[in-house]
Amino acid sequence: MSTLTIPSTESTTAAVDPSVKLLKREQRTMLMLLSPALAVVTLLLVVPLGWLFIQSFYSDGFTLEHYARIFTEGIYWKTFALTFKISIIVTIAALLLGYPVAYAITRLPRRWSMIVLAVVIVPFWTSILVRAYAWLVLLQRSGVVNDSLMAIGLTDKPLSLVHNELGTIIATVHILLPFMVLPLYSTMQKIPKDLLMAGSSLGASPFMVFWRVFFPMSMSGVIAGSTLVFVLCLGFYITPELMGGGRTVMASMLVSRNIQLYSDWGAASAVSVVLLVCVVLIFNIVSRFVPLEKILGSK
Amino acid sequence: MKYRNRLYQLMGCTFLSAALLGANANAADKVTFVSQGGAWQDAQTVAILDPITEQYGIEIMQDSAPDAWPMIKTQGTTGQAVWDVVDTPPLNCVRGGQQGLIEEIDYAKVPNASSMPDAYKTPYSVAYEFYSSVLAYNKDSLEKVPTNWVDFWDVENFPGKRALRNHPLATLEAALLADGVAPDALYPLDVDRAFAKLEEIKPYITTWWTSGGQSAQLLFDGEVDMLMMWNGRVSAAVEAGANAGMSYDQGILQSTHLCMIKDSPNPEAAVKFLNAAISPDLQANLPLHIDYGPGNPAAFDTGKISEEIAKTLPSYPENAAKQAMMSYEWWASEKGEAAERRWLEFMQQ
């Protein structure tokens, strides 16, 4: 959007200066090119969100009861606390797993790095539902993991790996991993190799070069990837529903339960609005440290 | 919507005049009937709906909605009904009746309901078919199989992984039956006592399932050893090769009912259709096509249902006697709704 604004010119000169005229025409063309996308966004995003917001204050007239319920009933606090807890664990796990992968991709010879990148991205194209069921098959009581563990004698009783928080976290980390690796990779790729060599030539050990030069320069990728994963995780629905065994209730599940329980869109809308406000706040805080474009993947 | 009605009328007229050249066009009654789709709708089309058109001359336009409640609510509140008769859990009928969305039944016009027990009827609806929330178990992994909810709660004598439905409906009933409440003395439910009993078993529940398909998977894959399931799902899993069994002892007998939308387009044909759909003769066709019990028990006296099939059905008198009948009227009440809300809190502790 910022590319559209032109340096302000006085209207009197605009009438005579042909270059300004040209600029204005270009601006109009750009607006026309943008308008289909703008219309879609307005129609499919802005309008429904506005509607959602209005409904959250509605139940046979204006009311604050939906919000009052969220802030007084314990289950809402518990659900939001659990949602944040799982999102934090998932983010940390994805970072610990994703950082070495992204680092390896930048350091490997090109052919190998493409293969590793493909391995990260291919599951991304598989349906979330399919991946959740695949994890169910792997982790359940008579699943591949438990059978193997018992076969090699590491445990004599099957472990509870699924139908709980652990199962939810494992599957969610797997599903969100590409969202961590890709921003990390794009940041790391841009770190000039000369700087690392300069560090070594000044006598720093490989660890020192990584820790004092490479890592600080990859920080914006870390923040970008972590924010993406964290925010996406806050709204996860299918995975906790399938892997959580019914006990792992996250905020988005509360939205659907509220529709069933109160047969009233308002009650569910209010939960959505609170979740949305949380996401906006997080983005707002993070954008003070990292420009928003960077989180969303552009250069 | 009006336009659509006109369209239906037009279509109806065209078909009729084409098919019945010269015949009495007035005889054509028609209704829009709504069920839940899938195998269930296919089965009743053969068993009940097509014969109604044949025998009673009622033309039936079918629609399906897995959850009819939002549509009932919308059609009632906008005053633009397009549906006439709905097959849905009685909770929706009773709640809809109380909110003025569902027509009250004039039982004088529904003679076929007279042979049905009072528990199978509400002021707004009649039973259409029966299913049951039963205790199912894995015969491979268990040496001693549980037969009722008392056994299910007895973790010492019946060790094994367990699952229940992630919903208070039927689960609270099972808890009270396990606690020694007699099946006919369940209602009004002692909600506090039920939740206290559920707290006891909670640590031993591996999974709280949300969909019927999930419950079947849990049984089929041996993920749990015993669980609450719908009887149709158990027989499907057994048919697919699971070494599993089930018991009707202390099962919770549930049903879907037929009810009529208030101010529907064809109110008179709707009553005729409703009466025909619960006739013993047509109801007896139902178990021949799907594993559900007839809503009208008089169907068992028609001789159409073989003893062998009858014995497996949830509403077979001998099986029904072992079970508790769910009171949807209680669940539609304020206390029932409060219990439903309390469930979420229970799950998160």
TrEMBL record, chain A:
The keyword Transmembrane applies. Keywords: Cell membrane, Membrane, Transmembrane, Transmembrane helix, Transport. It comes from Marinobacterium lutimaris. Belongs to the binding-protein-dependent transport system permease family. CysTW subfamily. The chain crosses the membrane at residues 31-54, 74-102, 114-136, 166-188, 195-215, 221-240, 261-286. It is found in: Cell membrane. Residues 80-286 form the ABC transmembrane type-1 domain. Signal peptide: none annotated. It is a multi-pass membrane protein. It comes from the Bacteria. GO terms for biological process: transmembrane transport. InterPro entries: MetI-like, MetI-like_sf. This is Putative spermidine/putrescine transport system permease protein.
UniProtKB/TrEMBL annotation, chain B:
Keywords: Signal. The keyword Signal applies. This is Putative spermidine/putrescine transport system substrate-binding protein. Residues 1-27 form the signal peptide. It holds the Pfam family SBP_bac_8. Coiled coil: none annotated.
